[in-house]
Amino acid sequence: MSGKKRSEETTPEDTAHLSHAPEHDISEDKISRVGGGKMQRRLRRYNIRMLIASVAILMALCAVLLVRIQDLNGTIGNMASQIARLTGVAAQQQEELELLRTLTEELSAALEEKLSDGGKEAAGKKDGQAGEKSVEASTPGITAAHKVYLTFDDGPSDNTEEVLEILDRYGVKATFFVVGNQAEQEEEMLKKIVEAGHTLGMHSYSHKYSELYASVESFAEDFTKMQNYLEEVTGVKSLVYRFPGGSSNTISEVDMKEFARYLDGQGVCFFDWNISSGDGGSYLFPAETLIENCTKNVSKYSTSVILMHDSASKSTTLEALPTIIETIQAMEDTVILPITAETSPVQHIKWQENEG
Ligand SMILES: [Zn+2]
Q: 144 C-alpha to center of ligand 1: Å?
């Protein structure tokens, strides 16, 4: 009984003591030692298994983590490209907004001008209208309430001859704002324009916005070249100018007022337009549209400057021109005239010092 109890309660001290114990106890001791060894082995095996299991679990976790990280990387990559795309879209929308804003500004400026043009009684204050009155006074015989100026930009071209023929047919004088570098092949046309009694205006020598509007110096260089060239070919010094893109163009980074003041200093007047035929873009509008655009507002203005283009691709302008002239000639108290240095200008921008 006592031996059994001892074996049950074996401790390291007991084991030491047992080495001097009587014979009959040894087998029990052996048994307990053998049992302890088994336990230890089992424990070791258990520990090893646990260790292996832990390592396996850790590796599995690492693998899962790696997969997740890769997933996340992919997601982040996707998000980055989406953000880049959205940024691009936002930038584009910003640009479109800016464009809309300038267009709105231009429109409201044009509307303002038209409204003030409409109120004829309120004239006098504006330089333009004061000028217009003096023209009326200084041009005997022209007392019409509505003066219409047909203007053709970008020529001479393959169409010029036909434009001249149509104008001649209706006994109408117009204004050609020509471009210098392309007139070199059409110098005969420049002479014909002048000989037929039309006004030869300048539309720059190069018509290259980036060069022309780079600085006042480059503008002056182009202007001088153009004015001299036209005088050499035709013997006439041109005194009227139309800015490529108009004075309200949004391409020039130099304030257009500076160019306007330069021209003024040269004794040259620039003309924009208050009626656009719509033939300026790359889309070719049908003749009916051009006729409608050119004629519908003429009776609202005392001065109508109509913008058209003289260039080979503008076939519908040629098509529309006879009807445009006929329609205007049929209007009451309306006359078609060429622009002269004395014509009251239609200008999109205010550039004189006192006009702010
Ligand atoms: Zn042009």
A: 30
Three-class secondary structure of residue 221 per DSSP? helix
Mean pLDDT of the chain: 82
Task: Using the mean position of ligand 1's atoms as its centre, give its distance from the Cα of residue 203 in Å.
Answer: 7
The whole-angstrom separation of Cα 261 and Cα 248 is 14
Q: Is the pLDDT of residue 102 over 90?
A: no
- Our CA dihedral for 212, 214, 219, 220, rounded to 10 degrees, sits at -150
Question: Residues 247-269: pLDDT tens digits?
Answer: 999 999 999 999 999 999 999 99
- DSSP H stretches of helix in 185-304: 187-195, 209-212, 216-234, 256-265, 287-295
Helices (runs of H) and strands (runs of E) counted in the chain:
12, 8
Q: How far apart are the first and last CA of the chain?
A: 123
Q: How far is the CA of 288 from the centre of ligand 1 (A)?
A: 23
pLDDT at 2: 42
